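Case study 2.
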Amino acid sequence: MIQAITGTNYMHPNKALLCLAFSAFLWSTSGLVIKLIDLNPMAIAGMRSAIAAAVMLLLMRGRLQFTWSFPQVSGAIAYALTMILFVTATKMTTAANAILLQYTAPVFTAILGAWFLKEKVSRFDWVIIGIVIGGMFLFFFDRMSFSGIWGNVMAVGSGITLSYFILCMRLQKDASPLETVILGNLTTMLFCFPFYFQQVPTIFDGIAILYMGVLQIGLSFIIFSTAIKFVAALDAILVQTLDPLLNPIWVYLIIGEAPGRWALVGGAIVLTAVTVRNIHSNRKMQKEAPT
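Prediction:
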């Protein structure tokens, strides 16, 4: 069992890298599973988060510390909004559009960091921000229904709320992210409660939601938050790109949903630009770190 559950203090880097890859694989299945569930997206988000919160509380009991600080509480709200917007966007637009537009979060984090933390945005960052925004606009060039357009808007919104969640985690410095995530899942559960009774879930729906709550969100986040401590930052950055890469592939292979041409171009631009920025930031931090 992983370090977080067993209480051991070390994980071999190779094992940690495999754990990160496994977490990214689980996250990448979200688009497909959400598409296959025939329920209101609010109900899906709420039920998934309810199960995830229960899993995290059970596995991490006795090792959690809720400070109820502003970053922890506001981060939890941002997390809840991210979950709701992403699930809704996946239902309304293509899975590729939903995950790739959400993947713009690091760029929004750079902008918010300059605003809230008074961090200087470098010229390189502004170039990347411009490229990513240009790539985002390409998603709207494809011929889409009214629902698809709003799905794209919600996907962008999930990127913005995710960026604020990331900022809140940075404001907490060395605090564990699990407490904020648990509060976020509980917030999602409560906010979505009125939508649980609009439709009776099928057996398949129940199994799919159970899978997402236990594995795709609950266990995967515990694995990720534990394993990331034992790998190089650059390795973590590269492994995390598996999620936006694999997510639309599973959807295409199983249900045949393919993104539009412009979305493919925009997605390639966004994915490349964000990855390059993350690698550049990591190398810059390494150079500035005291030896």
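The radius of gyration is 18 Å.
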